[in-house]
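User: I'll paste a sequence; please echo it back and then give the predicted structure.

Assistant: Echoing your sequence first, then the prediction.
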Amino acid sequence: MSGRALGRSGIEVGPYAFGVAPLANLGREVTEEEAAAALEAAWSVGVRYFDTAPHYGLGLGERRLGAFLATKPRNEFILSTKVGRVLVDNPLGVQPDDEGFDVRSSLVRKLDYSADGIRRSLDDSLERMRLDRIDVVFVHDPDEFYRESMEGAFPALDELRRGGVIASYGAGMNQSAMLTDFVLNTDLDVVMCAGRYTLLEQDALDDLLPAATARGVSVIAAAVFNSGLLARDRPAPGATYDYAPASEKILSQVEAIADVCEANGVSLPAAALQFALGHPAVATVCTGARSAAQVRRNAGLFDLPIPDSLWADLASAGLLRADAPLPTKEDSP
């Protein structure tokens, strides 16, 4: 599943990138067997790009992914992780996590965007995953740490890239404004934008995407289901948006999109996954899954045909920006 350049290092990726957060017990427990089966299913459908972070389950995501990838040829997959949260001993001992992951751990997160923190984080990640190298590294959620990232994290990552230790670096955030600043003012070559370029909202068209296009920076579109709102043909009861209960206004907008999809005989999740690939700056869509069945279902969504009439109807209804580039047959796997 290769085809589009990821950054400027010669790496190519397919349309489906696998995000490991759900397998790190995000929201609820996933067993070791379920996690391994999901990762094996991703491999079997052709996924070769896997993304994780120390934040995910206080290292659980990295450990589970590393154990799986250790069984695969190292030159056949692309691996990214993140920096900015170093895991340190919890003085209170083993405690339940308080940041959304169903784990108990003797570790806690320490925010550290310094050059030394970045190097320590990478060393720790390599040890947890028991792998010899990481291809892509993202500065993770530096919303309140702009100066520290500009003075510490990015120079350190630039040095690591120039030294051949990593292939590419960038930033991963749930906003587009600061990502745009990083695109314009650093030499990163890839960013992960979560939730800001989706079928539900396209604000990144105003800043990040034109900047990335101009600078030759690749964009990974993450959270294209907007916290699960677009993961089903109709929003599920208790649906969330940006990991909080969805407002009536947002739910109404999703229902309107679902109506147009239904009228065109299109699966809403398929439209959500395929939409982001229409922009030439978007290299891949990163989404997670909790089971092998979910992985296979998501992979199949990329293959479902979507008529041009869907995009036209969404635009005419004011549900999709008219200036959004639309997917073509060449964007499919």
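DSSP finds ten helices and 16 strands in the chain. Residues 199 and 272 are 5 Å apart (CA to CA).
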